[in-house]
Specification:
heterodimer; A: about 400 residues; alpha+beta; Multidrug efflux transporter AcrB transmembrane fold; Alpha-Beta Plaits; Gyrase A, domain 2; 3 domains; B: about 300 residues; 2 domains; two-stranded parallel sheet; about 15% strand
Chain lengths: ~400, ~300
């Protein structure tokens, strides 16, 4: 029992420290980082005057809104979209795989038209309510359109008048498809077929959903830029963060001795686990996310402090080490549960109702607190049990309790 | 050892808090906040130097004009380079003469360059995001009150929320009084502070709840019980705030210029969050409790006399 516990404890400690030293850096750096930490692609779009539409302030503001919608629909974390001067827009995207394709999608005017055989435009993109990519039973990718009530009526009229003839659907003046009308369509729905990949269908649907740009824009510059926080600041803050965590680890050792070491081991396991889950979720880390991590580390440490303080209290009241540990855990758990659940509730709300940086914060905090319930409570508990069962510590001071306050009997 | 009566001196603590918050609110209305370029927009300067320059040197130069927290990005092939010919700087709005000074300073310190762009740029954070953040936060507060009311009682929930409003107000006050710049990361800092504040308060409330259940008889001294609960959890309160402070102070001292205001907000907020759990939330809970006890006693009295 004694040797077995000691063996388990030693294996766990060596394993966690080993994994931590070996994996923490590569794991941390393999997580995708946002614009503020990593930089990304910097694109400058410029509004161009055409005979149909001249560039003005109002039009450019609308372009910003539509491009915002398009960027958000791409699922990128915290992009920057910013007006520059009179007719330019800066778009900064974090880690896109294919920047050229992204820019192409962003800059498309995306003017949709439905024309009859005489070339008269009957409907346009503003008559749409929704557009989604779909795959039909034959495995063909298509974009399904849903018209607004007004648009549905126009479309019904168009199809009724053109039974037996072809109508054409155009995007930016190019024919996408020209189907033959077999019968009037009154349901307010249509599909755009054509051989395209699911990704293309997705992009087309995205463009149609976000609406047409009021003016034509062209991309005048694309380049890679460094982090918005500045590479210098980032390097310094990385160093600072390492020092901070190091100090916390040292703190726990000084305050709580042997249990402090256990808490440090749990903390390392916690950091690894959190990074691993973030990596698996393919999350993008930004400064708000790091704030969430700092707070969750604080709470993980707090859970252990709570447990150890209860433990010390129970020891002082004359209980044996094992008994003090058991009741210390029981009492601390109620507190940890209530304080952490409150935090989890807040994180869930922020995640579902927040946008941009708020979500980034909520996801790391929420995940962090859930994971720390496991490491700071369950893992610490087992490690401490093994520590006590292995019977290697005889001096109560190594449990962070001064010997004067503990009766001789209790230690044995 | 006789402990200092913390909750008995609640007037002092309320006084200190009110002083900071009232001064802060007056300042918010008169001087407002020093909003960063994320909210206000500013000037973008895009330069191509003849020789590659170090980002650190660019920032040191900007620091001479109190613009060290400007957004400075290098561009080129690798996004993690620390030196490059292409430097893009976003600063707050500069006057003509300020801009000329900065441009001259950069040339003197770092060598000659070609100006690729020099234009006004707009805000990157819209009011929508801020309003959305406010609503999400308010909703989370309501749910926190609901949860605490369910697990404890409504008075605890109310006191916890008042404490976190207190903390938020203090941080806002300090930022208005010191005119430190508020940027997008400030929102995250406030959320972090709120999270810490609630968590810290609940630990003390949990102890009060435990003591109420185990050691309290009707008509007992509630102040004594609250004080005892505070002292029983005091070591934990101090250790926990120390660990988060160690982390953020390291970030403040050793971290970069662009994260200084962020870590400053966290330092103020964590300190305040730990303070308010003891000196604001607990006395408030007693105030609410005494008030409702009095009302109940009055009610009992009324029903008795009515009979």
């Amino acid at each position: 029992m004694k040797r077995e516990s000691f063996f388990k404890l030693a294996v766990a400690i060596v394993a966690v420290i080993g994994l931590f030293v070996y994996f923490v850096k590569p794991l941390a750096f393999s997580i995708r980082q946002g614009l503020d930490l990593q930089g990304g692609t910097h694109v400058v779009l410029e509004g161009v005057d055409t005979p149909q539409a001249k560039v003005n302030d109002d039009a450019m503001n609308r372009v910003v809104k539509i491009i915002e919608n398009r960027v958000n629909a791409m699922g990128l974390t915290e992009p920057v979209i910013q007006r520059e001067g009179q007719r330019r827009i800066i778009v900064e995207l974090p880690g896109v795989k294919d920047p050229n394709k992204a820019i192409e999608v962003l800059g498309k005017t995306a003017m949709l038209e439905f024309r009859d055989e005489d070339g008269k435009t009957v409907l346009n993109g503003s008559d749409l309510k929704d557009a989604r990519e779909e795959t039909d039973q034959q495995g063909q990718n298509l974009v399904s359109l849903e018209f607004s009530p007004d648009g549905a009526k126009k479309f019904a009229d168009l199809t009724e008048e053109n039974v037996g003839r072809t109508i054409s659907i155009l995007l930016d003046g190019k024919v996408l498809t020209a189907p033959r009308v077999n019968e009037p369509i009154t349901g307010g729905k249509a599909v755009i077929t054509g051989n395209r990949s699911l990704e293309d269908a997705h992009n087309l649907a995205l463009l149609l959903r976000s609406g047409a740009l009021p003016v034509k824009v062209k991309s005048i510059e694309t380049r890679t830029v460094g982090p918005t926080l500045g590479q210098d600041s980032k390097d310094k803050s990385e160093f600072a963060f390492t020092i901070g965590i190091g100090a916390v680890v040292l703190f726990m050792l000084l305050f709580y001795r042997a249990p402090g070491l256990i808490a440090d081991i749990s903390l390392m396991a916690y950091v690894l686990l959190l990074l691993f889950v973030l990596k698996m979720l393919d999350a993008t880390l930004t400064l708000p996310g790091i704030a969430g991590i700092i707070l969750s580390i604080g709470m993980a440490v707090d859970a252990n402090v709570l447990i150890f303080e209860h433990f010390k209290e129970e020891m002082r009241s004359g209980k044996t080490v094992r008994w003090a540990m058991d009741s210390g855990f029981k009492r601390a758990f109620v507190t940890i549960f209530d304080s952490n659940l409150t935090t989890i509730i807040a994180s869930v709300v922020l995640f579902f109702f927040g946008t941009g940086p708020i979500r980034g914060f909520a996801i790391t905090l929420g995940l962090g607190v859930i994971l720390s319930m496991f490491t700071a409570v369950t893992m610490t508990k087992y490690l401490l049990k093994w520590l006590i069962a292995s019977n290697i510590i005889h001096n109560p001071r190594l449990f962070g309790v001064s010997s004067a306050s503990v009766s001789e009997k209790a230690v044995k | 050892m006789k402990h200092f009566d913390i909750v008995g001196h609640s007037k002092i603590w309320y006084g200190i808090s009110s002083l900071i918050i009232i001064a802060g609110i007056i300042c918010m209305f008169t001087r407002g906040f020093n909003l960063g370029i994320d909210f206000t927009g500013g000037t973008l300067i895009d330069l191509k130097f003849d020789k590659a320059v170090n980002i650190n040197d660019v920032r040191t130069t900007m620091d001479q004009y109190n613009l060290a927290n400007s957004q400075i990005q290098l561009s080129g092939k690798a996004s993690n380079a620390t030196s490059s010919q292409d430097v893009m700087i976003r600063t707050k709005d500069l006057s003509q003469s300020e801009r000329e000074n900065v441009m001259k300073g950069l040339k003197d310190k770092l060598g000659s360059y070609k100006v690729l762009r020099e234009e006004k740029v707009g805000a990157t954070i819209g009011s929508e995001l801020v309003i959305n953040a406010l609503w999400a936060t308010l909703l989370s507060w309501l749910l926190i009150i609901a949860y605490v009311s369910y697990r404890f009682e409504f008075k605890f929930g109310l006191a916890a929320i008042m404490a976190l409003i207190h903390d938020t107000l203090v941080v806002l006050s300090v930022f208005s009084l010191t005119q430190k710049s508020i940027d997008s990361s400030f929102i995250a800092a406030i959320l972090t502070i709120i999270g810490y504040s609630v968590n810290d308060t609940i630990v003390i409330f949990d102890r009060i709840r435990e003591n109420l259940k185990l050691h309290f008889k009707r008509g007992g001294d509630i102040n004594e019980l609250a004080n005892r609960s505070i002292y029983q959890t005091l070591t934990r309160s101090i250790y926990t705030v120390l660990t988060v402070l160690v982390c953020t102070v390291a970030l403040y001292v050793f971290g970069g210029d662009t994260t200084k205001d962020f870590s400053f907000a966290l330092i103020i907020g964590f300190t305040c969050g730990a303070y308010s759990s003891i000196f604001t939330a607990t006395p408030l809970w007693i105030t609410f409790r005494n008030y409702s006890e009095k009302k109940h006693a009055q009610k009992r009295l009324n029903t008795k006399t009515a009979k």
